[in-house]
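Tutorial handout. Part one gives the primary structure; part two gives the three-dimensional structure as tokens.
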Amino acid sequence: MAIERWDPFREAISLRDAMNSLLQESFVRPGGMGQNSQGTLPLDITETENEFVVKASLPGVKPEDVQITVHGDTLTIRGETKAEEEKKGEQWHLRERRYGAFQRSVVLATPVNSDQAQAHYENGVLTLTLPKSEAAKPRQIKVGGPAQAQVGNGSGGSSGKK
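Part two.
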């Protein structure tokens, strides 16, 4: 029998993995009750100086079955997929494709201009382009010197001498 050096972190890592597994398999997920029990809507969100680009995987969902709303800085995507009808004489061996209502809401870093938002759906991927609102875009403020500061001091620029 070989003597093995004790590593306290080996057991801590396995405890962390066990806790992650417990939370992932629990009936109530940490994300809240509003999530679909068959999984969440996977999203990719990127940000540039002027806009957010959101990509959502919606395989098998018709574009007319998707509803997108933007309120301030909150984006909500919801929809529904229908289950296939069981036909007489057919027996299911495996049924893993998800169906039913789904919804996902995310809070973006800044408000967006929903009037100029664009949506494109191709090959099961919904792509949203959400321009940032003008108030949210970065602005550069120029710093003036002492001569410029006196212009706005309320004296009208005259010294009172003639």
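Part three, for discussion. Residues 8-25 form the longest helix (18 residues). The chain has two helices and seven strands.
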